[in-house]
User: Fold this.
Amino acid sequence: MERIPILKMGKFLLVSIQVDMHDRLALTLQDELTARIVEENAKGVLIDISALEMVDSFIGRMLANIATMARILDAETVVVGMQPEVAITMVELGLSLPGVRTALNIEKGMEILNSLLQSETQDGTEGSET
Amino acid sequence: MENRYSLLRIEIRYEHDVVLCRQRSRILAELLGFDSMDQTRISTAVSEIARNAFVYARGGEVLYSVEGKEKPQEYRIEIRDSGPGIPNVKDILEGRFYSSTGMGVGLRGAQKLMDTFQITTELGKGTTVTLGKYLPPSAPQVTPELIHRIVLELSHKRPQDPFEEIQQQNQELVRAMAELKIRQEQLEQLNRELVDTNRGVVALYTELEEKAASLKSANEVKTRFLSNMSHEFRTPLNSILALTQILLDRLDGDLTQEQEKQIFYIRKAAETLSELINDLLDLAKIEAGKTTVQVEEFQVSDLFSALRGMLKPIHLNPTVSLVIEDPPVQITLQSDEGKVSQILRNLISNAIKFTERGEIRVVAEVGERDQVVFSVSDTGIGIPEEYQKKIFEEYFQVDTPLHKKQRGTGLGLAISKKLAELLGGTITVKSAPGIGSTFRLIVPRVYIRPVADRTQTVTLGVLSLETGKPFELDPLKVPILLLEDDETTVVLYEKYLMGSGFQLIHARSIQDAWQCIEAYKPAAVILDILLPKEEGWDFLVDLKSREISRDIPVIIASVLQVYEKGIVLGAEDCAVKPIERKWLLEKLRSFEVKFPIRSILVIDDEEIARYVLKTSLSNTKYRVLEASDGMAGIKVAETERPELIFLDLVLPGMDGFETLERLKSSPATKDIPVIILTSKLLTMEEKIRLSERASDVLSKSAPPADRILKIVQDTLARIVQQGGSA
Assistant:
């Protein structure tokens, strides 16, 4: 069965969606990803959708779900590489991705994650220090 | 013509198909000239609606087309399903409905992404969503050639990965399977129909067999009925004919003019009926295979001259000429002359019936394959085409006013056809209404007997009556010699003795008289004593002195009173002329007692039949004994030893065959000749069986019925003669 690979990069998980997903594949990805967050104790998830030519309501909802669940599991989600047409379409469609951070590309995405992680640790150290 | 170009059709059955739909819609959009923004919009919208179809209706189909042959053209995607329908579609589209699953977003979003959007949904029936986007002005106009190119490219566009390829193949497979399934259902349906039809055919076949069997038995019943009718119908008819003959012969006294007329009409009616029954019997006989063909050599010219003679009396209309042409060359046939003649008579009398003026022409010629063709052409009313086949059927009569004027039994042509077939030939007809008809009888010149045909024929004892010879001795009557020179007196005595049982033998001279005495052994002599030249007295003396004539009683009839002299010379009685009939008969009867009384036994269960025979024999020297069944008949035969027995075949209890058997096996009765007198239609076997035992077989109606008495008498005469010579 086809599946979308989930790569581990330090404290982050990296998912690059290269195929046009059907709905079940999307749901599988959602399940596997949450499982891996717990397993790897990941602090961040980077989802690259640069290969996606469209994001409809289901995929959009799936992305939002992943972000929500990751947050509950103490991980931040950044979606990167969205094509402008896709973005426009999503807006026209009336989709917003609540709780999902976006970045232009993987690099920017990593920066966001790192900075988020740092501020969190700082907060944590500050907290422990105080 | 449809104002659209169809592009593609995809079925949604699996999840992957949703992906395929949106990919295809994108590629098509690209090929049609949409920019990448619109491509995304279109594929997103299609993805939403296709997902709905898959999730809520478990599948459906997507049709891609380009609407409009001229600009502005519209790329249109129609997504159909036959699911449960969308209950609150209005709310959804107006944004008042928010689904927890996000469905509302899909529908509404799709509407926003496209230029045109139509949705028809019916609860329980399904939903159809039509999405459309106008082609950008920069895009080339869609033409059939472009469509062709697009479709070609689409099919060449191999899916990028094996999975997609499988997916596509799967699509095709599914389609093929669906078609196969439909085909199979059709086949099954067809097979069911065939099985049903087959069952029907089998049932029909059985029904046909039953029908055939019942037809066969019906035909047998018909033939049996006809055979039986011969006896049942003919017997009373023959009685009527015989009785009316007796009445018309005034054997029982005179009739008034009116009575004669009435009896004449009764007779005519009975004759008509008898004719009809004879026709029927002819037909039944032919059908039962009881008619035999009697082959002999004959000339057409002889046949024709006989026909001319026979037809003269019935051809009475002076405006119709009957021409029977002798053939230019002599034609000799070997066939049954009687049957050929019967057929031709039938055809000619038909022609006479239906021709009011003109000509009836009969010709004969040699046809192909050694056949002889007889044609009977008339200038009569003709037969309409639709009836020409049917006229050969039994009882068929052409149903037009003209034909109704002439009624027959409707059997003539049927019999003719059967007879022609019996001779190995056919009858054909050519006719035009108002112009005339031509009937053709085609028979083989030489009759070839079918293998199965039995050559045996039994001639029925129908005797020809030889008339005109002087003093043909009637064995039934008592011969009386009259010696008389006056012709008037002879005629008077003949009248006196007519129907009396006596036969007058007339001698003009004594020499004649002696010859007659030797030849006929008269029972009595009536003597005119005043003969010219010869002396009557001398003759009387001679008569009484010779051994041969001593016992013959003599009556003297004279104008003279000679009683005493006569008695002395040996005469029985003397009378003065003119003598009375009554006296003469009484005198003759008184002599009769001196001869042994001869008797004839009639065994018949029918009183009328016995009565007719008795009456017809009452004027003879025979006494008629009667018995109404076989047992009684045998008893009477043993005690009375009759001269002759008439035996009916159909009797109550013991039938005629058995009675005959018994009579012939008993020593007391075995020498008594038996004549079978029956109106039963006999089979060949029966005829053979009877011919061995009986002296003769007489059909009660084989001859014209009114001559039956005569024939009975003739037959009796012949048997008595044979008995005498044996």
